[in-house]
Amino acid sequence: MSLATLRQWRLPLLLVLLGLLPIVASLYRIAVLTGTDPASVTNPDELRFFAMPISILLHVIFGVAFLVLGAVQFMPKLRIGTQSLHKKIGYIAALSGVIFSLVGTYMVFTYPPHSGANIAIDVGRVILGSLLPLFIVLGIRAATRRNFTAHRAWMIRAYAIAASSGVQSYLVAIAMVLNGSFDVALADRMLLVGWAVTLVITEWIIARPRLKKSAQPA
Ligand code: HEM
Question: Torsion over CA of 69, 72, 73 and 75, rounded to 10 degrees?
Answer without folding.
Answer: -170
